[in-house]
Every structure is written in structure tokens, then in C-alpha cells.
Design brief:
Blueprint: H1 5-43, H2 53-56, E1 57-64, E2 67-74, H3 84-89, H4 100-124
Antiparallel strand pairs: 1-2
């Protein structure tokens, strides 16, 4: 006969930890998205031909249960927002001026550290 009480207790602890940290994880994702938006906007600031494009960069946060996501980028409904794809990826006549990928790469180590810290605190209880 197998005694699974410790396994059941671990399962209960992990389930409780996941639920307890869901709100904190929303904060971590939101902060990361905000930092990416700010960085991206900064990379596109100061160009005379696209003065409104940096302000068109926004982010939307979605949370459902334990799934949290953020969509970051130029909002096509805002002034000059529709130019975002052209600037980011370039065209036949214009070289790309990446802002999103470099901003994401800059935030990645901070985001990973924040999530790891959150997970460690959750597991400690």
C-alpha cells in the first residue's frame, strides 16, 4: 500500500501557492509591459517625421485564471499608430527601425528575475 498523504499535501500547497500569487503575477506582467512600452516609445522618440508615433504605443493586459498576457505595440487607432508596422519592419524604400524587439530583449532579464522571485516566494509560502 502506498501512503500518498505527503503527495496530496504538496499538491494542495502548490495549488494554493498558484492561486495566491495570481494577483501578484498580474502586477509583474503589467510592470514588464509598461517598461517595454516606455522603452519602445523612447526608441522612436525624437524623429521629426513621426512625432506622434511614440505616444501611439500602448499595451493591453489580459488575465483569465492563471493565464496572464500583454499585447504591446502601436495602436492603429491613435495618431500615426498605423505607421508602426512600416517603421518596425521597414519597406522596399525604408530600412526597418526596430523598437519592439530591442525593448523586449532589454526587459527580458528583469521580467525573468521578477517571475523567478515571485515563484520562489510562493513556494516558500
Amino acid at each position: 500500500m502506498i501512503d500518498a498523504r505527503e503527495l496530496v499535501a504538496l499538491q494542495r500547497h502548490l495549488t494554493t501557492a498558484a492561486q495566491r500569487t495570481a494577483t501578484q503575477a498580474v502586477g509583474v506582467v503589467s510592470r514588464g509591459a509598461l517598461q517595454i512600452r516606455r522603452d519602445w516609445s523612447g526608441r522612436w522618440s525624437g524623429h521629426g517625421h513621426i512625432p506622434a508615433l511614440p505616444a501611439a504605443i500602448s499595451y493591453d493586459l489580459t488575465s483569465s485564471g492563471l493565464t496572464i498576457s500583454a499585447e504591446i505595440g502601436p495602436d492603429k487607432e491613435r495618431r500615426q499608430g498605423a505607421l508602426g508596422n512600416l517603421l518596425e519592419f521597414g519597406s522596399v524604400k525604408n530600412a526597418p527601425m526596430p523598437g519592439g524587439l530591442p525593448a523586449l530583449a532589454a526587459e527580458e532579464p528583469r521580467f525573468i528575475a521578477a517571475i523567478a522571485d515571485l515563484a520562489e516566494r510562493a513556494l516558500r509560502g
